[in-house]
Specification:
Elements (H helix, E strand, L loop, with lengths): L11 E8 L3 H7 L9 E9 L3 E9 L5 H10 L4 E6 L2 E7 L5 E3 L2 E2 L15 E7 L2 E5 L5 E3 L4 E2 L1
């Protein structure tokens, strides 16, 4: 099989080990349309761990903790590499937080968080597969129910 190489970035972030089916969900989290730097997206790449994976390279961008938390829900196997001077200076695996506030929407239409000005709040029940519980209505949600806001 012929190997394809992609150029390195000088400064920025590389997100690797994204399940292929979730690559573009991660792209949506990152608001990369507002970036005037190099953005490379690899999709359906061969992976021993995942079968196929996605990878995203973003020049000039460091992730916020909220972005990392969102990515952890969509791509729990992802690793984040911080690049400076074309070298990896930090590498870490995303971790699902124990509780989540503000950036998820409860899928229960009757939940108070969907009708009043309260911060959404969820408790993580299980990390693999992801299972969360709404703090207000106690409804349980899985991967297919998660809606980021």
């Amino acid at each position: 099989m012929k190997k394809v190489e992609v150029s390195a970035i000088e400064e920025g972030t590389v997100i690797d080990q994204i399940a292929s089916r979730n690559t573009f969900k991660v792209v949506n989290i990152l608001n990369i349309q507002d970036i005037d730097q190099v953005v490379l997206i690899g999709y359906n790449l061969s992976s021993k761990k995942l079968g196929t994976k996605g990878i995203i390279k973003i020049g000039g961008k460091l992730l916020t903790q909220e972005e990392v938390n969102k990515i952890s829900l969509i791509a729990p196997d992802a690793t984040v590499n911080i690049i400076k001077g074309s070298e990896v200076v930090e590498k870490f695996k995303v971790a699902i937080p124990e509780s989540i506030e503000e950036f998820l929407k409860c899928f229960n239409p009757n939940c108070v968080s969907n009708h009043q000005k309260v911060k959404s709040r969820f408790h993580v029940i299980n990390k693999n597969p992801i299972r969360i519980r709404c703090h207000y209505c106690e409804r349980h949600m899985g991967e297919d129910d998660i809606e980021l806001v």
